[in-house]
Amino acid sequence: MSTVTFIAEPVDLSAFGHDPLWLVIAKALVIFVFLLLTTLIAIYVERKVMARMQMRVGPNRVGPRGLLQSLADGVKLALKEGITPSGVDKPIYMLAPIIAVVPAFMAFAVVPFGPEVSIFGTWSPLQLTDLPVGVLYILAVTSVGVYGIVLAGWSSGSTYPLLGALRSTAQVISYEVAMGLSFAAVFLYAGTMSTSGIVSAQEGSWYVFLLLPSFLIYVVAMVGETNRAPFDLPEAEGELVGGFHTEYSSLKFAMFMLAEYVNMVTVSALATTLFLGGWHAPFPFNLWDGANSGWWPVLWFIGKVWFFLFIFIWLRSTLPRLRYDQFMNLGWKILIPAALVWVMAIASVRAFRNAGYNTWLVLLCVGVVLGGALVLAVGGLYRGRRRDVEQPPAATATAPFDPTPFDPMAGGFPVPPMPGQTVSAFSRTGVTPTETAAPTETSEDSHA
């Protein structure tokens, strides 16, 4: 058995921080334009793909095959009259969309698009900058964006936006824990928190295969973090009218939508960087010697990002919105415990790896044990829910008649009776009933 101790080498970040000013500005502008164009295309593609899945046509009026529909909608929102309700906290109300959209763009500063290339004679990596804790920077910046949602709901001075803001707070707290734990497994295995270092560590094999549980946990958490269906509870139109942005219109509403789609691109790019090898070419393109050099890696990176964007669209088209209790149970009772156990397993694998043991054998054994435990846990949860569903309710249609008068207006709003209960005669104003209907009376007799 080999006794060579594995020690992670420090990531070389010397290529960053030496670009001339004009190149830094050019990179920032390219990232800004890339995110804006991706948002416009993503809205059009989402409407077309959803229409295809639902046997509809989708946008087909503005431009050839409706290609300019997203641009027309953006111009319309920008030129519409902005209405500010009288009861809002105006400074915070105006600032909230800005707080939501700015961090979404800032997070892309450390995302690597490709290797070092020659840009007008200057060799520079296709990345604005990098940090020793680059992934933590993304997590911190995207966490600031939720303040825009919370402040928008609070400053609107209305009930439904406030409920949406509270939901968003609980949602971020719940799913950022699971997301951070999925990151921890990547940090432990790669030995670095730098985005460029994590991409370099996946040159041989991608972490989607080595750290599959972390990848699955992250995919679920990233949908919850971006408030997308089936986790769009802060803006559930069936329950909260429009949620946190109910009182917003015109350009301020467009900024919230822009922040949502840019965040989708950001979490997709982060998933690509952490688990799908970043800008490295997929199979079979990686068999070509020049696939990971020059400008080709930009194509592989954008293709992987669009793969995740399609997953977002697919989920919205197929899954119904979860109830709030189901959403919280998924985060706190399944994702976080599973992520904790997986992080401990990866830490154990890393310790065995440093001691010189066969990493693949240890990882395989741990994965089998954890996979079996997860299957048993999910199976037990499913059987428990099925027993609850199959168990007959306490009061059924065959239950004996309950002579106690039932007042539908006792709580201040009408409530339907349970099986076995009878509705007493009552007025529309909710006066205490004085007459109880017999169980054999017909509806005409009871109203008489």
From TrEMBL:
<feature type="region of interest" description="Disordered">
    <location>
        <begin position="392"/>
        <end position="448"/>
    </location>
</feature>
<feature type="compositionally biased region" description="Polar residues">
    <location>
        <begin position="421"/>
        <end position="431"/>
    </location>
</feature>
<keyword id="KW-0560">Oxidoreductase</keyword>
<dbReference type="Pfam" id="PF00146">
    <property type="entry name" value="NADHdh"/>
</dbReference>
<feature type="transmembrane region" description="Helical">
    <location>
        <begin position="360"/>
        <end position="382"/>
    </location>
</feature>
<keyword id="KW-0812">Transmembrane</keyword>
<protein>
    <recommendedName>
        <fullName>NADH-quinone oxidoreductase subunit H</fullName>
        <ecNumber>7.1.1.-</ecNumber>
    </recommendedName>
</protein>
<keyword id="KW-1003">Cell membrane</keyword>
<keyword id="KW-0520">NAD</keyword>
<feature type="transmembrane region" description="Helical">
    <location>
        <begin position="327"/>
        <end position="348"/>
    </location>
</feature>
<feature type="compositionally biased region" description="Low complexity">
    <location>
        <begin position="392"/>
        <end position="401"/>
    </location>
</feature>
<feature type="transmembrane region" description="Helical">
    <location>
        <begin position="204"/>
        <end position="223"/>
    </location>
</feature>
<feature type="transmembrane region" description="Helical">
    <location>
        <begin position="261"/>
        <end position="282"/>
    </location>
</feature>
<feature type="transmembrane region" description="Helical">
    <location>
        <begin position="175"/>
        <end position="192"/>
    </location>
</feature>
<comment type="similarity">
    <text>Belongs to the complex I subunit 1 family.</text>
</comment>
<feature type="transmembrane region" description="Helical">
    <location>
        <begin position="20"/>
        <end position="45"/>
    </location>
</feature>
<dbReference type="InterPro" id="IPR001694">
    <property type="entry name" value="NADH_UbQ_OxRdtase_su1/FPO"/>
</dbReference>
<comment type="function">
    <text>NDH-1 shuttles electrons from NADH, via FMN and iron-sulfur (Fe-S) centers, to quinones in the respiratory chain. The immediate electron acceptor for the enzyme in this species is believed to be ubiquinone. Couples the redox reaction to proton translocation (for every two electrons transferred, four hydrogen ions are translocated across the cytoplasmic membrane), and thus conserves the redox energy in a proton gradient. This subunit may bind ubiquinone.</text>
</comment>
<dbReference type="GO" id="GO:0050136">
    <property type="term" value="F:NADH dehydrogenase (quinone) (non-electrogenic) activity"/>
</dbReference>
<keyword id="KW-1278">Translocase</keyword>
<feature type="transmembrane region" description="Helical">
    <location>
        <begin position="134"/>
        <end position="154"/>
    </location>
</feature>
<keyword id="KW-0830">Ubiquinone</keyword>
<keyword id="KW-0874">Quinone</keyword>
<dbReference type="InterPro" id="IPR018086">
    <property type="entry name" value="NADH_UbQ_OxRdtase_su1_CS"/>
</dbReference>
<comment type="subunit">
    <text>NDH-1 is composed of 14 different subunits. Subunits NuoA, H, J, K, L, M, N constitute the membrane sector of the complex.</text>
</comment>
<keyword id="KW-1133">Transmembrane helix</keyword>
<feature type="transmembrane region" description="Helical">
    <location>
        <begin position="92"/>
        <end position="114"/>
    </location>
</feature>
<keyword id="KW-0472">Membrane</keyword>
<feature type="compositionally biased region" description="Low complexity">
    <location>
        <begin position="432"/>
        <end position="441"/>
    </location>
</feature>
<feature type="transmembrane region" description="Helical">
    <location>
        <begin position="294"/>
        <end position="315"/>
    </location>
</feature>
